[in-house]
Amino acid sequence: MSRVIGVPKEIKNHEYRVGMTPAGVRQIVEAGFEVRVETLAGTPIGFTDDMYKDAGAKIVATPQEVYASDIVVKVKEPLEAEFPLLREDQILFCYLHLAPDPEQAKALIASKVTAIAYETVTDNRGRLPLLEPMSEIAGRLSIQVGANYLQLNKGGRGILLGGVPGVSPGKVVIIGGGAAGAEAARMALGLGANVTIIDIDLSRLRHLDALFGPALHTLYSTSTTIEDAVIHADLVVGCVLVPGKKAPKLITRKMISRMHPGSVIVDVAIDQGGCAGTSRPTTHDNPTYLVDGVIHYCVTNMPGSTARTSTMALTNATLQPVLALARLGLEALRKDPHLRNGLNVYKGMVTNESVAIDLNYPYVNPLQAIE
To answer: Known catalytic residues?
Structure first.
């Protein structure tokens, strides 16, 4: 079967990433498949329509033409304007983050689309290979963003994270030691900050301790250790992840009320609902708000601000799964249990157990569903 792959222009606030680079398109075209790219989809990050045409893509003028494709490859979840374009017998491949988004889940179920979420695809080592590159970018960005908002002219405490000779560095507390947390630690240590990372997985803490050495402080996660660390921090970075589920609220309002005014929280976990009780989604247009004098940065598409780097990293991760879906369709899900773990919604059924539990839908085993 000759499947058509569509790459739409993203419409989320300040989302300049695109589902595929021209180099990725060329690989798909050379494999024998048609690729439709919506006009201007990559222009803001230097991927022009001419570059996509040279790679073999067909440039189309409207989202409707893109969504007429058999497989739609994009970055962020579909928004309300895109819901009517989804249909049965179509594969949607992108980040979904359904657990904190019941309206999107309802729309995907109603459309009967086959919705595969990047963030729940696994590999044979139990990792999340399609989420990992964006987690790495968000983790690194969290320190850049936090350092910026700690400046007095941004409303912060007036803290330089690295300090200077004779003055103590700023205190950074990272909750969650996965890909995002590790990269946040790398950046913060590189700036010379005093860095503590908290996780519930002792083996992960041992790995981070060996990786970064004595410059990094590691703590086992309990409510007491989190509270003690958070209330003395200048910058708190929330990197908690439970695949497919809403992030647990590990940082309470009481903890935040005891933080220094002008301290900063960057909640990288906001895509899954956020790990602070005071977190709510924000946009690049209005990225921050105050609670008890503490600056909250909770932008749901952080890597969109470094869209060129992010698009290249994402295409590197998604290209082989896209090729598998183009070649095999649903058979790719039958053959590959790791790709099948990405199936969240299929023909009106919720096929990810964590999403089903959090949103109170019946759970259907994905293999049984597609059979």
So the answer is: 97, 271
